[in-house]
Amino acid sequence: MNADSLEHHLAVNRYGAFTLTDAVRPGPQLPVLPRQGYRVRVYRDRQARLRLPMLSAAVSAECLFDVFLSLIEPLGKVVNVVLESSHGRDADDHVDFRRTHIDAPVLASYLCDFQDLLMNDGCTGVAVLHPTKPVEVQFDEHKLIHIYSPTLKPFRRVLREYGVRRRVDLPLLCEGEHLHHTSDEFEDQFQQMCTRVGVAEFDSVLSDE
Fold this sequence. Notes:
This protein is α+β, with helices and mostly antiparallel strands. It has six helices and eleven strands. The relative contact order is 0.23.
């Protein structure tokens, strides 16, 4: 693919009824065709003897951020948060910064302040966790939503309200060749978000495994 063709490919953000954010593009050969929906699988951590239902969702950009905020609500009034960054790092490598016990409405306000960063930076992600239960809602750098929880009912209800339906066969953009977009400005904004949220030292989340 020549430079002109690649530039044209990167400019395409709509595939049928599905709109991508600016964060990620499928590879030039379209190994995975973006489409809306969710799938359910099982997350296993043999070392921790943990087995949880895992829901992964691809949501069109028009309602993606609203869906994410709505999916945080079942976690309760107080949550833990992990901000994830792969700025300046190799592929598949990122660093996590955690803050525990933050009021969920306060966190939602902070996230809204950095909506552009969270939606359009391919090196930024965020995970929101229940403080005492193994429940996590992750909005990753591919702008996919992953949920780990003993029960998925409240989260499936939210997705249904937004018209996001379950698909038995749903390849995800991250599972094929894809390209991430970021910038120095986004990296600076990530640092600002860390300061605003008050995150501290590195810690792991379910989605690290």
